[in-house]
Amino acid sequence: MSLTQKIVAGVLKQPFSLYQLMTYDRTKPVNMVVGSMFSLYKGWIHSDIETLNLLKRSDWEKYFEENSIDRILAEHVWEHLTEAEGKLAFQHCYTYLKPGGFLRVAVPDGYNPSEEYINYVKPGGTGNGADDHKILYNYKLMSGFLQEIGFTVKLLEYFDENGQFHKAPWKPEDGMIRRSADHDSRNQNGKLGYTSLIIDAYKS
């Protein structure tokens, strides 16, 4: 039975994310997904709150040296943190990223002009998981938080204050965001049904 089959069958008592965190090859580029309960990407280490709590430095220290991670990917994680928690989690990412490494973060977009979308994603909204949302980001708010930490920000997808959508080229292999303009099935025939605020934050 392969490792994947054992995991699916529940043979392994430890979660897959813990196995990856304990056994990854430190001689190769280190790419990590945080909050990865539902997505598994080849070549990436996966973690969740049970194995790596973003807010606990002691959790980071268990698995990583400072300045050792090449990429961190977080799709719809930061909206579940308060403003103070989000800043602390950004600081931990900055500490453990290599110089030149980056965090790709995606969250619901507070400047989306659709009232239906906002009602779906806002804290206490109608969408799945929105009852646990703590903050609704826009590109200005999140960029400001990241820059306070020391990151250099590159905006990939976002709505501005006037409801205009902006999109820069980005590569899924550098961190796949499924809830995005090109990869969400709700976006069809040139109409954007669901997008995210997506930012790459680089450590200089």
UniProtKB/TrEMBL annotation:
<dbReference type="GO" id="GO:0032259">
    <property type="term" value="P:methylation"/>
</dbReference>
<feature type="domain" description="Methyltransferase type 11">
    <location>
        <begin position="59"/>
        <end position="103"/>
    </location>
</feature>
<dbReference type="GO" id="GO:0008757">
    <property type="term" value="F:S-adenosylmethionine-dependent methyltransferase activity"/>
</dbReference>
<keyword id="KW-0808">Transferase</keyword>
<protein>
    <submittedName>
        <fullName>Methyltransferase domain-containing protein</fullName>
    </submittedName>
</protein>
<keyword id="KW-0489">Methyltransferase</keyword>
<dbReference type="InterPro" id="IPR029063">
    <property type="entry name" value="SAM-dependent_MTases_sf"/>
</dbReference>
<dbReference type="InterPro" id="IPR013216">
    <property type="entry name" value="Methyltransf_11"/>
</dbReference>
<dbReference type="Pfam" id="PF08241">
    <property type="entry name" value="Methyltransf_11"/>
</dbReference>
